[in-house]
Amino acid sequence: MVALIWAASRLVTTTLVLLLANVQGANPWTGVSPGYAEFANMWDARWYNIVAVAGYPSTLPLTAGGEIAENAWAFMPGYPVVVRLLMVLLGQPWAPVAVFVSLAASLGAALLFYRLMRTVQASGTALFAVVLFCVAPLSPVLQFGYAESLYLFLLTLALLLLLERRYVLLFPVIAVMALTRPSGLAFALALGLHVVHRWLARTQDPFSVRERLLASSVAVFSGISGLAWPAIAWIATGSITAYTDTELAWRSAYIGYQELVPFTAWFQGGVWWLGMPLGIIVVSGLILAFGLTLLLPAVRRLGTDLRFWLASYGLYLLAVFFPQSSTFRLLMPMFPLLGAVAQPRSAVYRVGIVLLFIAGQWGWLLLCWGVDGADWTPP
């Protein structure tokens, strides 16, 4: 049933994508009315393509003003390496192979998401959560040349292993996941909270010495994995700040080149978008609203460990991310919240939310994916 839901959702999304591709004008990535594979590999997909065929620069490129320019170090190797291997094996170019990898990973993620939800929900609710996952407003990314599908597959697997307390198997999953999308530090925090919670509840839920050592070790390993890519960039380029300087280049169009100061970017973004003091007020309100969301009964029913992940990832985004149109995509790892959205059993509600999500797909495609002149809404 999950595979059928996934297939039906991909048919809907593909139809929307082709409708938009048909009216797409010439742009930096494609000509007029591009085919599906070409249209699905615009924006950051080009950077992943560069990594797959050319690797990473040993010398960081500079702007005319001497600042670090946008470059491939912002894009981790997990996804492009998988695509590159299949390109070699199949003798096919980047675009169709990238789409195939994303589609296959999205199917795997949907199957695993059902298993994840079944650990905390009844089967009917878990299945509807899968429906929402497959038709979510950002679900077109699951069949584009982006790393999100592969990352969500790995993240869902990691969360499932955590809930099942299969700590040993988490080591290889975390290692690959942390080199696919930035996630190691957030997952390390979730694991740390898991260890503390299990320790405090050990009288009701036994926490053996072996499990303590394993769970603590995998938490430390996740933290190290989260720092591995910046360390690799440092070794390869000779600049200790190669990775962070590269990431900061993407926000320079908004606030110029600045140092990375944790927990300031959202407030800087709020002021840039809305001015003072409204920007500070809105961001503070969003932080409060997110905290209260984690306390809602429907979210509490997801269980402690999934809420630990949601809180940890939210804290990670608050610490390092500058809010702009890519924020929608960066929120995708919070997909366990769909398990809370899926809980109402009213048929009217469920049909309505599915239609709303599909409309959201079209809105996101128009706003963030389709290119219309000088576009300030990258996906």
From TrEMBL:
<feature type="transmembrane region" description="Helical">
    <location>
        <begin position="308"/>
        <end position="327"/>
    </location>
</feature>
<feature type="transmembrane region" description="Helical">
    <location>
        <begin position="126"/>
        <end position="147"/>
    </location>
</feature>
<keyword id="KW-0732">Signal</keyword>
<keyword id="KW-0808">Transferase</keyword>
<keyword id="KW-0812">Transmembrane</keyword>
<keyword id="KW-1133">Transmembrane helix</keyword>
<keyword id="KW-0337">GPI-anchor biosynthesis</keyword>
<protein>
    <recommendedName>
        <fullName>DUF2029 domain-containing protein</fullName>
    </recommendedName>
</protein>
<feature type="transmembrane region" description="Helical">
    <location>
        <begin position="94"/>
        <end position="114"/>
    </location>
</feature>
<keyword id="KW-0256">Endoplasmic reticulum</keyword>
<keyword id="KW-0328">Glycosyltransferase</keyword>
<feature type="transmembrane region" description="Helical">
    <location>
        <begin position="347"/>
        <end position="371"/>
    </location>
</feature>
<dbReference type="InterPro" id="IPR007315">
    <property type="entry name" value="PIG-V/Gpi18"/>
</dbReference>
<feature type="transmembrane region" description="Helical">
    <location>
        <begin position="167"/>
        <end position="193"/>
    </location>
</feature>
<feature type="transmembrane region" description="Helical">
    <location>
        <begin position="271"/>
        <end position="296"/>
    </location>
</feature>
<feature type="signal peptide">
    <location>
        <begin position="1"/>
        <end position="26"/>
    </location>
</feature>
<keyword id="KW-0472">Membrane</keyword>
<comment type="pathway">
    <text>Glycolipid biosynthesis; glycosylphosphatidylinositol-anchor biosynthesis.</text>
</comment>
<feature type="transmembrane region" description="Helical">
    <location>
        <begin position="213"/>
        <end position="236"/>
    </location>
</feature>
